[in-house]
Protein 1
Amino acid sequence: MASKGYAQSRLTQTGRAAQLWVIEWWRLVHLGALILVLTLSPSSYSPQSRAILARHIYLNTAPILLWFTVLCALVTVVLTRIVLVTALSYGLSQYALQVVIRVLVLELIPLTAALFVALRCTIPDGAELTAMQASGELDEMRRQGIEPVRREVLPRVVAGMFSGITLAALSCVVALVVAYIATYGFALSGLAAYTRLFGQVFSPAVTLIFVLKTLFFCLAVSLIPMASALYGMSEASVRTSAEMRGLVRMFAVILLIEVASLVGNYY
């Protein structure tokens, strides 16, 4: 009887955990759809809303843009030099730049930009939203007829996506320019070969996967911290906080996106 009761208790706990897991992911999908609708709605861009959105975009992008670009340029110089020297020692120097472009531009920069934005911008924004939820500020907005998702969540999500896309796009351009200079110097003689190599790497299919991966990375790091802050989800487990569960969920989604992009690019 004791073993039967234990098995029944474990089964109940497993069912409750599965139910909460489905609810959490459904809330995330629902919030993403709501944010998409609000983003495309003209009513979301009143003068006051535009001012709030502009402030979040500036705070999430301007302070980190220069430092991330400089860091990307330094990493590009080091990585290009390492790949060139290694390829030359094995007699494979003709493949060195292609490896740099594939590893750095296609894989590392979008992932690094998304994680950088998450750690610097969206996770602190989620913590700020959690504090507003705990203090009752969001409930007070609802009593005043103000929708918190439109006023507080939408600007943070859009600003996080804008910051991630901007960092990734600018860093890719800087990395390509720095890689060319590190290989050919400041001469224009290698521009034709470099352009042809770039076209060989960035085929239409690879370009589409690159763009979609960057967009989904930015969406994941912008949306998941806000969903964890808005819905709490602390009832799912007393052993882990909502922020920690949101962080684990964000890294799981990023991993799935990266695996899917690798399958699309190389299989």
Note: The radius of gyration is 23 Å.
Protein 2
Amino acid sequence: MKLVEMGKINLDTPVSNYLKRWQLPPSEFDNEQVTVRRLLSHTADLTDGLGYSGFTNRDSIQTIEASLTKAKDADAGLNGEVKVGIGPNSAWIYSGGGFALLQLLVEETSGQTFNEFMKINIFQPLNMTSSTYILNDSLEDRLYEFYNSNTTAAPHFY
């Protein structure tokens, strides 16, 4: 929404108009119906079903484009491919891939990394001085423990 406020994007323009580094793969459905508004509301009808499980080490992290093509950290049983799988705006379907696509859109339209854009435009104005999208060693002493459903400590994923 910050990009809309800045006049860089329109909620109802096809996301393909903004993307250079990656495009939705061809499908039997109209990719031009995939808009920012529909991605934000999970009505673009992408059928990736992603949950991203994350990586145990930072060397395994994929580029955004690679994760949209075939996420190596897709939740168990999912193929990790982001594509339009039913007619856009015909159903509500959660899409982690849709939010990764929005992350790419932020980078493409701002000319900044997602983390830089968020830091400058969201975190700093809100005085969120410890917020980041990049997990690094300097944060180790400030990360909260979190747990699996069986109450064992869970690792922090990248």
Note: The chain has five helices and two strands.
Protein 3
Amino acid sequence: MKSGRFWAWVVFALGAAYFFIPLIATVEFSMRMRRGIYSFDAYEVVLGDPRFQATFGYSVLAAIFTIILGVLIVVPTAYWIRLRLPQLRPVVEFITLLPLVIPAIVIVFGYIRMYGSNSPLPFLASDTGTNALLVIGYATLALPYMYRAVDTGLRTIDVRTLTEAAQILGAGWGTIIARVILPNVLIAVLSGAFLTFAIVLGEFTMASLLNRPAFGPYLQNIGANRAYEPAALAIIAFAITWACMSLIQILSRFAPRSANRPN
């Protein structure tokens, strides 16, 4: 028994070292911009860079629109499948997994071929259309995470009983989804939203090929031309991502704990 516990701690220590040693080394390197002493000069340069502020703001705005689009698509779809079309669940789950199998570069090249300036729908001929396509592409990439988060939330509530009660009170489908279902799965939606935010913030392929001023291409550009600033940016991006993950863990404590009930 003691031997098993010892080896468990050894494995844990090795895993922690594998994770933290490169992180600590990156932090240490990012603080060596000023010769001979540790400083936060690299962080000051990055945070004061107008391109950082512009690209980060652009990606945050794109993430907000992506989350809104994802919620509008996923919540009604997952709700309707659980309520009326459970036989389609395997098909929908397979479809939502496709973005994990199909590379982002394939999706964006499809956009370029279908919506280029010579196509009947020339979205890429304007900045507004290109931004809209980018948000749609981001929503596609985040679909596996958003759908599973919402579907997990729907499993914790009695969808059929809530729907029947709302219909008895005269509520329409829009009211049922917006005022009954969505508040009950809000924690799950927020979990999917934070995952979507983290994906959008670091995505490079779509933003680069669509020539959008996003945070991912900025990270790549800085990494190709600077020494200490990329390490500082990596730590900043890491902190933002882990902040999102921590918020998911905090929010999951407030999620309903009821067992799965038949719907």
Note: The mean pLDDT is 85.
Protein 4
Amino acid sequence: MSTRVVIADDSDIAAALLEAILEEDAAIRVVGRARTGAELLSLPAVAIADVVLVDLLMPELDGLSVIRTLAARAGVIVVSSLPRGSAVVREALARGAGATVEKRELSGAPARARLRAEVLRAARRPAAARGGRVILVAGSTGAIPALEALARGLGPLDVPVLIVQHLPDRRERDLSRALRGLGARARPARAGDALSPGFLLAPSGFHMAIDARERIQLTGDLPVSGHRPSAEVLFASAVPLARRVAALVLSGLGDDGVRALPGLSDGGGLCFAQEPSECSAPGMPRAALRSSPRVRPIRVVDFVALARRWVLGEG
């Protein structure tokens, strides 16, 4: 079955070029076009589209304004004249776009091939990201090597990985930079972020939670289990999504996150603790294993393999 694509661009020339590029692959079929965000939202073809290409600079209602609505039903790729690192493009990714391509790059064959690959990749995202699966990670003393292994193994996947790692103040930026160097899209979380693919780290001094709209909420409430951020807060907030959640407790002292694990596991979530024998500080994993018989010990390398199958809908 072909991957169905809708193109939103106020330039007929640009839209025609995009259609020609995409349909060089017989597995891709363009099923509709729109010139504005308002026209896009009312387009019948959007209801059957697997992927939508969105230009951010359109009249009446721009692409940025419609991404949140679109990302709930289809993969979204930004194709824009704006630089990939611009604030507007970063905001598009935060609102749920899965990838971005600069128009000026499309004169070259490699970029055209990458666009087609991104479209096919985005079409496979429903089980992984849009209203789909989420990985939660709690870590403290000794957890950094495990996070690095997760970045190498899970970084290329289209799945949100929400991390509460106990760190000295403001060191989450350094950790994010290190994880990016290992192949993961990683950064400190911001209030209002969508559950889009990549590693989002709880910032220093703030609890991170998932709100009722399935967006990131940051609060400065009192420490929980002696920590702010606390994994307890994140895990508890994910109970309504439990059937779509895999949670992992890594090396650390204490028992942060443990009280929320029974709620996650009882709700159908997959709950794991890093095998204590491979932890430099096994307190958190041991407490997690005591919290519920449904929490299973696992080596990090085995969690990566399991999570990859789970995210791709193979287990």
Note: The first helix runs from residue 12 to 22.
